[in-house]
Design goal:
399 residues; Porin; 60s Ribosomal Protein L30, Chain: A; four-stranded mixed beta sheet; eight-stranded antiparallel barrel; alpha+beta; 2 domains; 12 strands
Length: 399
């Protein structure tokens, strides 16, 4: 275990975010509509009409662009001082979706607000009490959908859309069209609804921001450099005082420390065990590193599988516990502040259990270990992505 290992671990935790995102989602929405063009003279509609209902399934090719297949229903009734009518429009449509929030880098100033732009084409049927048969429609539609993230999987949608109807042979009130033109009818809709992300990953594409650019990453690494160097120096100083656990021999560079602690020793001779407690200097040093929080295992966002660059910490703890059979540790899991409290509590417990399993697989007695999921690391700064990455960890508490 050397300075380079610590530096690599910290830089991976700060600079790497290899998480994937969910590309599929479903949504259900309800609201009102207001047709403005497409009526016989003397006819008018309510302002607004109840109801407009629609739902769809969306697939994102990446975190900026996707397609949505949807269907909807609009109920249109007569307004004040209008002859009575009752009409309905059913439709299916295919729309292209642009995630304006990611295109414009909303993540630079908010984590929970988004904006979608959508447009597409569809077909529908207009029918009602005054219709002898249904009128088949074609239409073009476009609109904006502000989003509010309620959790990593659920979002609140507020949508405003415009429908421009072509091939319309009947007015919305059921009479024959007398004036032919490109778009015969116009309908405005406003809805509110919920979107649910589908998939195994933690976040949907709508909320996933791309990895930082080279210049941004360089800036982040530069800010972390001092911290990494200090941690590496502190760990190296502690490490230099440890006995080589493979040979139980004292390295040359710790001879002075051992001489001061236990009396004069010849260079590279085995260190005598202290009379009490019945442990060697290596165990005492390892315990000190663990107690002061230098030994941690780090995880990717939403994952209970440790980063490969952190597995040295598992081996370190396993060696300590096997050489000190009377020692016991509490394996404490933490999560960052992404996601709900309930999700993070379960995730932190899963991380602790995963590390306990790795330790027992390395020959550690289960009786030396307990686990605890401590949920969100409340010492981390939710506004700092770097600190949130370092919060996703398992640490060890000497009992």
């Amino acid at each position: 275990m050397r300075k380079q290992i610590l530096a690599l671990t910290a830089l991976v935790a700060l600079g790497a975010n290899a998480q994937e995102y969910n590309k599929w989602s479903i949504d259900v929405n309800g609201g009102v509509n207001k047709p403005t063009v497409g009526f016989t003279s003397g006819y008018a509609t309510k302002t607004p009409n109840l109801w407009t209902l629609n739902g769809g399934v969306r697939y994102m090719f990446n975190n900026k662009f996707g397609l949505r297949l949807a269907g909807g229903y609009d109920k249109i009734e007569e307004g004040k001082n209008s002859p009575k009518f009752n009409s309905n429009i059913w439709n299916v449509n295919l729309q292209a979706v642009a995630n304006v929030g990611r295109v414009l880098s909303f993540e630079d100033w908010t984590r929970d607000l988004g904006l979608l732009l959508h447009s597409g084409v569809g077909v529908g049927q207009l029918k009602g009490d005054n219709f002898s048969k249904a009128d088949n429609l074609g239409f073009f539609t476009f609109g904006l959908t502000p989003q509010i993230r309620l959790s990593n999987r659920v979002s609140l949608l507020l949508d405003g859309s415009v429908y421009l109807y072509a091939r319309q042979n009947r007015t919305f009130d059921g009479n024959a069209v007398t004036t032919k033109r490109g778009f015969q009818g116009t309908n405005f809709t406003g809805t509110i609804g919920l979107q649910v992300a589908l998939g195994r990953n933690l976040v949907h594409a709508d909320w996933y921001s791309q990895a930082a650019s080279d210049s941004q990453l360089a800036e982040r690494v530069a800010k972390a450099e001092n911290t990494v160097a200090e941690l590496a120096k502190r760990l190296e100083n502690k490490e230099d005082k440890m006995v080589d656990t493979n040979s139980n021999r004292v390295p040359d560079e710790v001879e002075n420390y051992i001489n001061e602690k236990y009396g004069s020793l010849a260079s590279n001779q085995a260190a005598p065990a202290p009379a009490a407690p019945a442990t060697n200097y290596s165990g005492q040093s390892a315990r000190e590193l663990i107690e002061k929080g230098y030994i941690n295992v780090y995880f990717d966002l939403g994952s209970a599988t440790p980063q490969v660059s952190s597995l040295w910490a598992v081996d370190f703890v396993a060696n300590y516990l096997k050489q000190n059979s009377g020692a016991s540790l509490n394996v404490a899991g933490y999560a960052d502040q992404e996601g709900s409290v309930k999700f993070n509590q379960k995730l932190s417990a899963r991380r602790a259990e995963a590390i306990k399993k790795l330790l027992t697989n390395r020959g550690v007695s289960a009786s030396q270990l307990s686990t605890e999921g401590k949920g969100v690391d409340k010492t981390s700064n939710v506004k700092s992505a770097n600190v949130r990455q370092l919060a996703r960890r398992v640490t060890f508490e000497v009992k």
